[in-house]
Amino acid sequence: MFKLLLIEDDATLFTEIKERLAKWSYEVHGIFDFNRVLEEFIGLKPDLVIIDIQLPKFDGFHWCRLIRSHSNVPIVFLSSRDHPTDMVMSMQLGADDFIQKPFHFDVLIAKIHAILRRVYNYNTEQATSLKTWCGATIDFEKNHVSTPGGSIELTKNEIYILKLLIEQKNTIVSREAIINSLWNDQRFVSDNTLTVNVNRLRKKLDELDLGRFIETKVGQGYVALEEYPAL
Predict the structure, then answer these.
(1) How does pLDDT run across 74-90, given as a tens digit for each residue?
(2) Which of 37, 58, 92, 164 sits in a 20 to 30 Å window from 67, CA-based?
């Protein structure tokens, strides 16, 4: 049974989400002291976090930053606000998905299913432990990329995108293929979500001088190069 932490201050919505998810055998926990979100998270060790943006004391972005400093657990944001910057901020902070209120519960459940299946089945069944690419060693189980000059840690989405690209290195992987592989149903995913994830991946790879290996092919998709791009 997967443990989910639902950080939502609307008691009615919390109860409804919990009851819906319980029908799928998810164990849902809430927050009662919104000053102690991080402590509750550390103590619970959930498999996935669902967090509202508008919360008492501090907003969801604040708690996402703190959770990300301790864990790469999947995070899904909920928000009644419709400004595009909220989604961009969520993805920049390492969220795995963003759902705008009001939402259809079937969409929420489908996204949770897809994320948990991707993250936990991927880690235990599909990933080979190590792979080399452009002089770097990629550890898919630990979400690490390392070179003699240093190492970085990636989120689940970032390591999965990198895996998809290097498995077909020097070949363009379409945006649609990545979205479908990562989120299962592109009807519920903003095209900007993928852009933010890839940009964040490339920025992290830049720390190891590897960002240049990921090229954007406008109107097509992305390609992971096997060699340095020609100058």
Answers:
(1) 999 998 877 778 888 88
(2) 164
Task: For the sheet with 144-147, list strands across it.
Answer: 130-133, 136-139, 144-147, 150-153
Say if CB 66 and CB 57 are below 8 A apart. no
Residues 20 and 63: beta-carbon distance below 8 Å? no
Looking at the DSSP bridge assignments, the partners of residue 133 are: 136
Burial class (CB in 10 A: 0-12, 13-18, 19+), 154: buried
Give CA–CA dist 206/194, Å, rounded.
18
| CB crowding 99-129: b at 16 or more within 10 Å, else e | beeeeeeeebbebbebbbebbeebbeeebee
DSSP 74-107: -EEEEES---HHHHHHHHHTT-SEEEESS--HHH
CB atoms within 10 A of CB 63: 24
Rounded Cα distance between 231 and 190, Å, is: 34
DSSP character string of 125-143: II--SEEEETTEEEETTTT
Residue 123: the pLDDT is: 47
Task: Specify which residues 144 forms β-bridges with.
Answer: 139, 153
Tokens of 66: 């703190």
For 133-163, the pLDDT digits (tens) are 998 999 888 889 998 889 999 988 888 899 9
